[in-house]
Each structure stands twice: as structure tokens, then as C-alpha cells.
Amino acid sequence: MAPPSALDPAIADRLRRDPAGLVAAVVQQYGSGEVLMLAWMNDEALHRTLTTGRATYWSRSRQEYWVKGATSGNVQHVRSVALDCDGDALLVTVDQTGPACHTGTRTCFTGRELPVTAPGQDQPS
Amino acid sequence: MAPPSALDPAIADRLRRDPAGLVAAVVQQYGSGEVLMLAWMNDEALHRTLTTGRATYWSRSRQEYWVKGATSGNVQHVRSVALDCDGDALLVTVDQTGPACHTGTRTCFTGRELPVTAPGQDQPS
Asked: Distance from the CA of A13 to the CA of which of A22, A27, A111, B79 falls in 20 to 30 A?
């Protein structure tokens, strides 16, 4: 479960967390609209993001807070945060310094397309 | 766990699923770049999305497959699908018919901003 947090209770009440206490955070470049990455936040990561203006996540693999860019320098300055209609996802718009992906690509999705094989996929059926 | 699926094993091998067998699917409008919603896919939902060209998700609340727009008419025609660097998130670009959100708003994030209270949030520090 999520550790204690200073997150505004009015916001905390709106979160619908997964069994690990997390909500998904979709990270989008302000202006261009590029989707940079997907990360995870617990209450405290959201609190820190809202109050510091630096995108802060919960690392599921390392089980620790992770200020994006703290080691790489590729920081994210937060422009806005919105919570979706059912409370399980955040949309975080940022100004991304450098590449968003730890592999060095601009986004974590760059060059990683899967084949869509539907016949006539561009034609409504 | 996820039910059996016809998903290409080469793709299935790249998925890093949560304990419920799911990956997050970020859904983005082709062209405008709007982030419309976040949903969830298991292997079979991804297989159906890739092979039918109609965005298909797994409903965590109803525990069933869900072809977006099947009841509302607000379908999503799939333009592309990409898997992120660590295999736990998909970026699905679509042509959205009508509003994406069941509440009637264009996206599930529309009008749901949280306050960012960081001092000088637009100024790199």
C-alpha cells in the first residue's frame, strides 16, 4: 500500500488506485502533444509533483520515489496535471529536457510500432 | 491472469503485464495529439485491436472485453500501436468518432485539472 502522504485529501479521495496503491501517469510534451512515456504515481508522488513542479514518480521495479531527470539531467518541468473521469489515470503535461526515454530516444514509444494487420483499417466499417 | 490469446508470441514475449495480466493503453487522437483516455489491455484485447483495427480493451470493473463505441457509437479506428521500452504501456493512435469520454466530454481529462502550486513552476530551477 501507499505510504502516508501529504496529498490534499480532497484530491486523494478522487484517486482510484490499483492494488499496489498506484495510478497511471501519462506524460505529454506541452505544445507538441507528443506522448513521452507512461509512469506510475502513488499519493505522495502526486503531491510532490503538484507542489514542486518537477515530475516525480513511484518506481515499481525499485520501489522508491523517482524525480525524473535527477540522475540523467533529463528533467520534466510540469505545466499541468489532470485526473481522468474515473480517477485511475493522470495526464501530466511537461517541458521535457533532452530525451524522455532512458534508451536515448525522444519518447519511450519511438520506433517501437506493432503491426496493425486489419484489412482496410483506415476505412470505417 | 489473462485468458488464452491468439496474440503473436513474439509480441506477447515483449509484454510486461501487471499482476492482473494487463498493460496500460494510452489512447491518442491521430493528428491533433490529444490524449483521449487511458484503458487496459490483456493479450487478447491487444490481438483484437491489431487484427480488427477497432480499439478493444479489457474492462477491469466489468471483467470483460470492451470494443470502444460498441454501444455508444463513439468508435475508435486504430491508426497505429506502439509498445514502450519496458513493455508495460501501449500508445494507440486512433480516429475517434464523437466524444471519447462516457461523460460526454471530448477526452476523459477535459476540465479535470488539479492545482499545480509549485512556485515559479514554469521556470527551470
From this structure: A27
pTM of full prediction above 0.80: yes
SS (H, E, C) B26-57: EEEECCCCCEEEEEEECHHHHHHHHHHCECEE
The reply to whether A67 touches chain B by the CB within 8 Å rule is no
For residue A1, name the pLDDT band (cuts at 50, 70, 90). Answer: low
Nearest CA-CA distance, residue B71 and chain A, Å: 15
| Element spanning A29, H or E | strand A23-29
- pLDDT-based confidence at residue A79 (cuts at 50, 70, 90): very high
- What is the model's pLDDT at position B4? 74
The grid coordinates of residue B117 equal 502550486
B106 inside 8 A of chain A by CB: no
